[in-house]
Amino acid sequence: MGEDGARRPPGTWIRALVLHTTRGIPGGRDLRPQKILPGLGPARRTARATNQWWSSNGTCAGAHLLVDFDGTVACFADLVTEMTYHATSVNAHTIGIEIAQGPNAELWEGQLDAVVHLVDWLTARFDIQRQIPDLYRGSLARLREGGRDVVGVYGHRDQSAMRGEGDPGNEVFRRLGDVGYEPFDFGSGADRMAWRPRQRLLGVADDGVAGPMTCNAIRAFQRNHELPETGLADAATRAILERVDEPV
């Protein structure tokens, strides 16, 4: 791993994905709107250059994955056994995804489409519930303090007061919301309040944190209701859960 990561503690439950942009601006310190260009960006060796920089610049910074301008995905660390130094307090139990920005901090539509596909695959692979921050409210105490009760997909800006709005900006979360990711006010604990009654109906501990036992219970629930057994509470699963008034 070099200076940009370390081994994960054995048996770590990976509970969240953290989205980053390589420049973190605009929409941050310079307050300009985030610029999204049509199509895909140019094919560059951004991943190689970024990885070399992380490995030798002395800042102890890194990420697991990088989505380049043209939608290419590069993997820099083992997602299961290695953690990267991408978001301090939550490193041990998250996967970090960098989105490469152009020289003027621009992103491309096709690149963001690739990010959505990547996040879809990762949430399915790691049983991470598809939930996102509903709005940007600055860094959240729950995440600064370790984020062990926060499940889903959030931005570096939600974890650190040192990053601006553009890390990663609003557009990627808008796109995730468009494909069904459930928005919550993580700062107020709205996610945990929503999950407690769901967990009671599923017959698991109602701590409001949708972990592996909750995902397994969702699979059984989906099987009983002839839904795809994903373990993720998609809109169809939630709709049936809301109609159920007895524990399953």
From TrEMBL:
Where does the source fall among the domains of life?
Bacteria
Q: Where is the Peptidoglycan binding-like domain?
A: 205-241
Q: Which SUPFAM superfamilies match?
A: N-acetylmuramoyl-L-alanine amidase-like, PGBD-like
All copies of the N-acetylmuramoyl-L-alanine amidase domain together span: 46-169
For this protein, the record's Pfam families field holds: Amidase_2, PG_binding_1
Quick one: signal sequence residues? Answer: none
Q: Could you tell me which InterPro entries the record lists for this protein?
A: Amidase/PGRP_sf, Amidase_domain, Peptidoglycan-bd-like, PGBD-like_sf, PGBDSf
The protein's name in its UniProt record: N-acetylmuramoyl-L-alanine amidase
Question: Which species is this record about?
Answer: Pendulispora albinea
